[in-house]
Amino acid sequence: MVSRRNFFSITILMVTVLFLCMCLNNLKDNWNDYTVNRYTETAENYPSQINIYVPEDSDGKNADEQAEEDRGETVVARDRVIYIGDTDGISAKVVKEWITYTKRSIAAYPSLADCEAGEAGAEPAEMLVIDAACVNWKAKGELDFLDRCLEGGTHLVFCSLPDVSVIKGEKRVRELFGIGKVLEEETTVTGFYLREGFLLGGETFYLEKEKPDAEAYLPGSEAFPGAKTFPWYVPAAGTKAYMKGIPEGSAVKTENYPLVIWRRSCGNGYVFAVNGGLMEGPEGLGILSAMAAEMDSYEIYPILNAQNIVLAGYPGLADENAEEMERVYSRSVKQVFQELVWPNLSVFLQKYDYKATCMMTPQYDYSDENLPDGKQMEYYLKIFNEQAAETGLSGVSMSEIPLAQKLEEDNRFLQDALGGYDVVSFYGGALEEEQIAEALDTEALVSARTVVREYDEENAAPVGFLSENVTSQSTLGDGLKYTYRSDFLVRCMETALGYFSMSFDMEKVAYPEDEGDAWEQLSRALASTISTYGQQFQGFARTTAAECDVRIRQLLALDYTCSRTFDTLRLQVEGITGPAWFILRTHNEAVSEMEGGSWQKLEEGAYLIEVTGSDATLTLKSTDERFYR
């Protein structure tokens, strides 16, 4: 029997617990200012296009304009890259973007002969990036010039190779490239091997599968990086291979596998070569950064340090496609998103500390009579705000409605539901630049600072400015369709910029085209992608699109210098306020301590450096590991 005193104590305790629960929920709701976008701040408060770093002595011109004007005769006090080839080609665009990100300067010439004439008397460049088609391989004088460049300490990077007949017929050309012999003029490989220590992400194999298992969602079910058919070059002694093709059959020795990316030491410089077209796209940014890290005892360069997950078309706020939703899920689309999708998503994201950028679409189909639900909008804004997710707006629609009209209806809905909402990030998908410019002029996007776009193989710049105050950031692929090509691209972008951005098309959930688009299947693909990259690149920061926007502006605006005295590196940063991030690549050395910032090891020989002020020093120590150079 409970005494009166105990009964009274229990009652008081229960009332207190009930009161606290109710108060906490009320306080939580009151403190959750979900109608205000936490990332909202006018773009004018951040570095803009006019703040982009321009190399010294360029008279206010950007590096490539200056190079085209004076043909490289002005020498700036900075590592200088000379590009030889068609300046309108994709390889030239890749090189120009790379020197912008790494703060080098550039000169450009249409041919090797023009370069020799234009560089007469100039200080040696750090590297020549060469389109092999712009070299006269029959001219002894041009080969002599390449030899003199190497003797002077200039490295040669060939983003393409001479015709196989030239390599096969010219011994001197084979010696330059470190090719022992041409085994076959054309071969089709069954896979690729990527050596550890070149690109970030470690060693990997890209192997064909006889029967790709769609249920397993393993990488490589479709595209491979680069061409699978190319000449079979066997390396000569002393040639270091970073990537090789894997031929059919097991009789071939590993050392004789076809070369894809490799290096040969020659004189005081290195000759790097790429087979199979891998430099003809944004992947070239990472390949160039990896090559630069192989050229000296250390390499340090600025990066974004941003890892993004973009949920395109999530959430949808209207009850659409009701019959199909009932058949597949026995629920409405709103219930599917709220009861199935978000609980799964939040678990996946929290496990690897990712932040979601939810590019909402109030409606998928603007031609029906199903209108978006304002209460659903409030619900999602509350939970997104609690979990530091960002709410953006998608410009993609399955209706044939003009983009301006779609955004007008979206803005009207936001006004009615919330009294307005300031959108910072806009999802443009595959929209053309003219369409995006039109969208940015609408009332719905008056506060937009950044546009997230689909990956475009023809666009060499994964991040940059669309206009004076609006940045652009590309996703690196569809996270629901993981392939070897997308994996290789991610490794390249992580190496070049510490950047990862994967989009997930959530419209497929509301409008499935087949059984493979059911959430049960899609969630497995999503979980596989998030876990793969979450484990592989866990040292980098998780960001939203708006946070990434700030880092893009900082990266493009900063300038830095790095000097070394014995085992101490001094890093000086200017042009920005706030932290800056760098990747340090070393050989047979490790970071032991740092002042003026912090560091963490990403993998062997690779470190993430955060500089919190304008000046930082790092102390390196020798390691016992041997390194072949």
Task: Write up this protein.
The chain folds into three domains: 62-303, Rossmann fold (3-Layer(aba) Sandwich), CATH 3.40.50; 306-551, TIM Barrel (Alpha-Beta Barrel); 558-622. The protein contains 17 helices and 27 strands. By secondary structure, it is an alpha/beta fold.
Write a concise keyword list for the protein shown above:
629 residues, alpha/beta, Rossmann fold, TIM Barrel, 3 domains, nine-stranded mixed sheet, eight-stranded mixed sheet, 17 helices, 26% strand, globular
Helix content: 25-40%
- Low-pLDDT parts are 56-77, 211-221
Helix-strand makeup class? alpha/beta
Approximate shape: globular
Tell me the major beta sheet: 9 strands, mixed
Mean pLDDT over all positions: 88
Specify the CATH architecture of the largest domain: Alpha-Beta Barrel
- Report the count of strand segments: 27
- Cα gyration radius (Å): 27 Å
Number of helices: 17
**Strand neighbour order, sheet with most strands:** 2-1-3-4-11-10-9-6-7
| Beta content | 25-35%
At the fold tier of CATH, the topology name of the largest domain is TIM Barrel
Report the oligomer. single chain
SSE order and pairing:
Layout: H1 4-31, H2 63-70, E1 80-84, H3 90-102, E2 105-109, H4 112-118, E3 127-130, H5 140-151, E4 155-158, H6 164-169, H7 171-177, E5 179-188, E6 191-194, E7 204-207, E8 229-235, E9 239-246, E10 259-266, E11 269-274, H8 283-294, E12 298-303, E13 306-316, H9 322-329, H10 333-351, E14 356-361, H11 374-386, E15 390-394, H12 403-418, E16 425-429, H13 433-440, E17 450-453, E18 463-465, E19 471-474, H14 484-497, E20 499-505, H15 507-510, H16 519-536, H17 545-557, E21 559-565, E22 568-574, E23 580-586, E24 589-595, E25 597-603, E26 606-611, E27 615-622
Parallel strand pairs: 1-2, 1-3, 3-4, 4-11, 13-14, 13-20, 14-15, 15-16, 16-17, 17-19
Antiparallel strand pairs: 5-8, 6-7, 6-9, 9-10, 10-11, 12-23, 18-19, 21-22, 22-27, 23-26, 24-27, 25-26
